[in-house]
């Protein structure tokens, strides 16, 4: 089980079988942003090839219509990976996720602002899909105006890279 959010970092705990409780003393820190507001949350683990990829949101997520964060501090999607899938998650530069590492997978660009709240799904037709919410700057910055988006992921380099979004499939979130 993966859990955690702002301030304390992202953790993993081993579940008992059946998964109704956590194995005592099995907590492991997976990611932590030591700088600023410690804004890591929404972790999602995805196994691809020999690696377990830890996708998570980093930055300020909400309230963009009333207080827009400084450029680069808004939500973005990061990833680290580990062969074991327990601890030792590192970014593409080899920096530990527990020491502020994290390779950016998707960040603000064009009319897409503050993407996050992500997950990864292995679609039988398209392969790995990164799905997320974002602000479409042509629509508005309020939390209730966020949109749903998705991109295919290309792992050919060993790291997930987004390919062009299918903009015909976006829908407003509630």
Automatic annotation (TrEMBL):
Pathway given in the UniProt record: Glycan metabolism; L-arabinan degradation
Any one GO molecular function term: hydrolase activity, hydrolyzing O-glycosyl compounds
Record keywords, A-Z: Glycosidase, Hydrolase
InterPro entries with a match to the protein in the record: GH43_arabinanases, Glyco_hydro_43, Glyco_hydro_beta-prop_sf
One GO BP annotation of this record: carbohydrate metabolic process
Pfam families referenced in this protein's UniProt entry, alphabetically: Glyco_hydro_43
PANTHER family: ARABINAN ENDO-1,5-ALPHA-L-ARABINOSIDASE (PTHR43301), ARABINAN ENDO-1,5-ALPHA-L-ARABINOSIDASE A-RELATED (PTHR43301:SF3)
Family that this chain belongs to: Belongs to the glycosyl hydrolase 43 family.
Stated name of the protein: Endo-1,5-alpha-L-arabinanase A
